[in-house]
Design goal:
single chain, 431 residues, alpha/beta, Rossmann fold, 2 domains, seven-stranded mixed β-sheet, 31% helix
Length: 431
């Protein structure tokens, strides 16, 4: 069987590398590695990827998997890590905390992986990361949860490929306050991800002399939103939205019908429209509104060579769509975290001269000491700085405006604008 990246996909078992262990499990190796046969135990780097193939995070999971396959192919074609190819073992976690934890246990106890990476949705991470710590397996999330940097996990947990929501909001709030207004109504999903936005943005606006006057939580599975809109404070300068899930098109359409042509400024996090075509008629209401983006979906006039390289490798065009299907819109503002996390794993394992679990402690210490990761083909979103205490990377953010059904970056923050004082020091914890 061949997946959409052209990599060969094999079912695994505990007895051989080629005969099925469980439905939905796959091992990805590059063609260059396959030509020489599968490596024996101890001669490969086993990485477990719990992917949101189903559930509310499926749109993200589909692209996370594509990016993981593309990055692994590049690494393996280049000789692997310390001369060993990566075995990428993928399981569906259903975007479900219980299943997510079970998959982590399976990776640690059955597959005996060297590390686990890839989970995004914060409620899944909140359940799975502590279990990884109990099992003493390195766990690298591709999420934006602040729970890691707040001290909620263990020394085995890292977030090296993307910034957390606290950093993102700390960077965004001053710009919103200065350019859009100081009185805000927030519409957000009623679970952990939304609560982070609620709490951090409320605090950040207060620091800017503003206020979040109205909070409107919405269940993430909601499919109709009209009944929530009368709660919006009519005196608001800004509507801040960060909706996710299957109802985003309906949300924007109904918001437009509610307000018509006269409405407050609108600022959203791109999560609301990830994997959604901005040219969709229902989204016309978003014209001239603003979004936070980490990696800009649309190639910008000053596009870097690193972004060009990355887009080509993962099969994404200048509009953020699949090169094989212009209607297949990527989750571009988040999925780079998978790419950058895999290359962070490679860098740390090489620094630790990692050859197997005997060097696990050295690998953890090397992750803590990644330091500055310069913008490059390995870090196409931009420069990152790893905090060894919080295990959280800091990077730049982008504010983009919708123009003619595309997004143009109008402001890029510095890394320093998103930094905050450490709330924990994992490096002092035992392994």
């Amino acid at each position: 069987m061949t997946d959409k990246t052209g990599n060969k996909t094999f079912n695994l078992t505990r007895r051989t590398a080629l005969k099925g262990l469980a439905a939905g499990t796959s091992l990805i190796l590059s063609p260059a590695v396959l030509r020489h046969g599968l490596a024996h135990a101890g001669e490969t780097i086993k990485l477990g990827a719990p992917i949101h193939r189903t559930g509310i995070g499926a749109a993200y999971g589909r692209w996370y998997e594509r990016v993981a396959n593309a990055a692994v192919k590049i690494i393996n074609d280049g000789g692997g890590i310390n001369g060993m190819p990566i075995e990428l073992i993928i399981e569906d976690d259903g975007t479900d905390p219980k299943r997510g934890t079970e998959v982590v246990e399976k990776f640690a106890t059955e597959y005996k992986v060297d590390a686990i990476f890839g989970q995004l949705f914060s409620h899944v991470v909140a359940a799975a990361a502590p279990r990884a710590g109990e099992l003493k397996v390195p766990y690298l999330m591709c999420s934006e949860t602040h729970q890691l940097a707040a001290g909620g996990f263990s020394r085995y947990a890292f977030q090296p490929g993307i910034t957390d929501v606290k950093s993102q909001i700390a960077s965004m709030a001053p710009w919103v306050s200065k350019n859009l207004g100081k009185k805000v109504t927030m519409i957000y999903p009623d679970y952990a991800f939304g609560y982070g936005h609620r709490d951090f943005f409320s605090a950040a606006m207060k620091e800017q002399g503003g206020e979040v006057s109205t909070l409107i939580p919405v269940p993430p599975t909601e499919t109709s939103f009209s009944r929530y809109f009368p709660q919006i404070d009519p005196s608001s300068d800004v509507i801040y939205h960060v909706m996710v899930g299957p109802g985003v098109l309906t949300f924007v359409k109904e918001l437009g019908e509610f307000f018509g042509s006269s409405h407050p400024a609108i600022f959203g996090f791109v999560d609301s429209i990830e994997a959604v075509d901005l040219a969709t008629p229902q989204l016309s209401f978003l014209e001239d509104s603003y979004f936070w983006e980490a990696a800009p979906r649309y190639a910008q006039a000053d596009q870097t060579e690193f972004d060009k390289f990355y887009r080509e490798a993962v099969g994404v065009d200048a509009n953020g769509a699949s090169t094989s299907d212009p209607k297949d819109i990527s989750t571009y503002s988040h999925m780079f975290s998978v790419w950058e996390t895999l290359f962070a794993i490679k860098s740390a394992m090489e620094a630790a001269d990692y050859k197997g679990v005997e060097q696990k402690e050295a690998f953890i210490e090397a992750l803590e000491n990644l330091g500055t990761m310069e913008a490059s083909n390995e870090h196409p979103q931009g420069k990152k700085v790893m905090d060894p205490k919080t295990h959280q990377a800091f990077g730049v953010q982008n504010i983009s405006q919708v123009k003619s059904s595309k997004m143009e970056v109008v402001y890029t923050t510095t890394i320093e604008e998103g930094m905050y004082e450490p709330e924990v020091d994992y490096s002092k914890m035992s392994l």
